[in-house]
Structure formats: structure tokens, C-alpha cells
Amino acid sequence: MPRPLLACLVLLTLLLGGAAALRHAMTGPGQEAVAPASGSARAPARAAEVGPRGDFLGVIIPSASVEIVSRTEGQVEAIEVQVGARVQAGAPLVRLDLHPLRKELAIAQAALQTARAQEQLAQVALSEARDRTQRYAHPKLVSLQAMPEEEIAAAGFQEKSAAAKLQSAQAQVQEQVARVEQIQQRISDAVIKAPFDGVIAERYLDPGAQTSPSRPILRLLGAGGLRVRFAIPEDEPRGVAPGAPIQVRLPREGPPLTGRVENVAPEVDSASRMIIALARLDVPPGADVPAGLVVRVRLGPPGERAALAAPETP
Questions:
Q1: In the CATH scheme, what is the code of domain 71-96+193-215?
Q2: FRET label pair with 75: which of 13, 120, 196, 276, CA 20 to 30 Å apart?
């Protein structure tokens, strides 16, 4: 082998050996180069972000909630309850000022009396017109041709005219009766009552404020139990069906609440890519579970799975 070629081979061998030694020195004994993570290797990290499978974030909501509004426009005279007060169905909550309505009712009642008087006059006129027609059409007078045909025809016309006036007067009476009943209903609606048992959650207006059907006065939460609304990722709907048992961990120490799923949305929400479910809770008597709490929901009855993790602070 020629000397120049042999010298090149020796130099290349020395260079490769030096690179291997340098790499060993940098990595240290017992260490190997780490291969790039694959998609399957990243899956545990994503699972840790979203929490254990079967645990869903939810919020406590009341069984019913309604904005208390007035059916008619008016001024608030008094509000009979305070925020936090428990009320029963039919209890008065708000009273409106009745003075304008009472004046309007007095005017309507006077108009009704006038309409009824006009109806009585029309009835008398019709009775007289009928008597006249009957006299002119008496068989003896007709056989003797004692009454001219023009007068007989005029008497018939007067009877028809009196009947039409009576119908008009009766219609006026019905109109005024309806107006009086409408005002009386507005007076009755001026005392706003609770539609169901519940707790006053918010108060929007004070006495003296002007109200209308589009302006709420109070907010009433139902006292018929609590529910939890929770969101299920679109790829984890397994086992979530009406009637399925659930556990709900509150953001405090203590055993979880139990309940059952009532309904599940039939479609995925396009914005959040979640399926919304609603479940009724079995709340022990005397338990303080305010609406609006963020909780963690898990499928299954108590003891079937491991303890629930505490809800994350939003």
C-alpha cells in the first residue's frame, strides 16, 4: 500500500476514535441519548392535564329559578321580602301603587253604568215599536184597511231600527264590562306573589322605582332540591345516561353527595366540544350547599371507585 494512502487511513481512525471518546465524556457513564417522544408518549401528560377519566367539572344549580316581574306597568310601593328570605308559594313579595288603577276603575265603572242605562232605553224603544207594529197589523184593522200601508211599513222599519239600537247598546255594555274586569285583574296583579316555595336570591329594584313586564324586581330560587350541571368531553360519553348514579365532591372536607343523571344533551356543543348533562342531587337535611359551587362529578355509586379529587380552583 502506498505510504500517502496508509497515512490517510491512520489519521481517519484517530479522528473517529477521538469523536467517540468526546461523546462518551459528555454523556457520562450509564447515560444514553434520549429519543424524541412519540404521540403515545405524550398521552399520559395530556391525561394528567384533564384529570382522571370519568371525573367531570360541574356547577351546582337550583331546581328552579325565576325572575319576578310585574304583569303591568306601575310604581313599586313596597317589597315585602329581603334577600335570603325563605318564602312559600302564594306569599306576597311586591306591592305596586294602586291609586292610578283605582281611579281608572272608577271611570270604567261609571262608563259601564251609562252603557247599561242606554241599554234599558233601547229595550223600552224596541218594546214600543213592537206594540205599534202589532196594533197596525191587527186582523180587524187590516180587513177594514183602516191603516195606510205606508204607516204599517214605517212601523215595521221603526221596530227593526229599535232592535239594532238595542244590539249596539248591549255591545257597549259588554265592552265596558270587559274593561272593568281588565282593570280589576290589573289591581289583583299589583300584588305579586311567589309562584313556588323558594329563597330570594337577588333584589333589583327598590320602592319608588318604575316597573314593567320587561324589568325584573326579584330573583327567586326554588327550594325543591338541587341539581348539578356538568360537561362531558365529546370523546368520553360512556356510561353517562339518564338514571346513572353519580358522586359529587364539594370543595371542602366530607363525604361526596350522591345523585342520578336526569338528562343528557343529544348533541355536542359546537363551541366547547362538550356534552352537557344534568343530574338531581340527594342533599342531606340541613346540609349547606349553595348554588353556584364548582364541583367534580364522577360516575358510579359511593365506594365503587376511588375517592374523588378536590375540585380545582377556577
A1: 2.40.50.100
A2: 196
CATH superfamily assigned to domain 51-64+221-299: Efflux pump adaptor protein, beta barrel domain (2.40.30.170)
3-class SS letters over the chain: CCHHHHHHHHHHHHHHHHHHHHHHHHHCCCCCCCCCCCHHHHHHHHHHHHCCCCEEEEEEEECCEEEECCCCCEEEEEECCCCCCEECCCCEEEEECCHHHHHHHHHHHHHHHHHHHHHHHHHHHHHHHHHHHHHHCCHHHHHHCCCCHHHHHHHHHHHHHHHHHHHHHHHHHHHHHHHHHHHHHHHHHCEEECCCCEEEEEECCCCCCEECCCCCCEEEEECCCEEEEEEEECCCCCCCCCCCEEEEECCCCCCCEEEEEEEECCCCCCCCCEEEEEEEEECCCCCCCCCCCEEEEEECCCCCCCCCCCCCCC
Higher pLDDT, 145 or 38: 145
Identical fold for domains 51-64+221-299 and 71-96+193-215, yes or no, is: no
Query: Looking at the predicted structure, is the pLDDT value of residue 108 above 50?
Result: yes
Helices 99-136/149-189 angle, 10° precision: 160
From residue 276, alpha-carbon distances to 226, 248, 259, 270 in Å are 17, 16, 16, 11
Residue that has been written with the C-alpha cell 265596558 in this structure:
176
Domain positions in the chain are 51-64+221-299, 71-96+193-215, 99-189
pTM > 0.70: no
Average pLDDT (123-143) is: 76
List residues bridging with 171 in a β-sheet: none
Distances (CA, A) of 295 to 26, 63, 229, 313: 50, 17, 10, 10
pLDDT tens-digit map of 214-261: 999 999 998 778 899 999 888 876 668 889 899 998 887 778 889 999
Which amino acid is located at 12 in the chain?
L
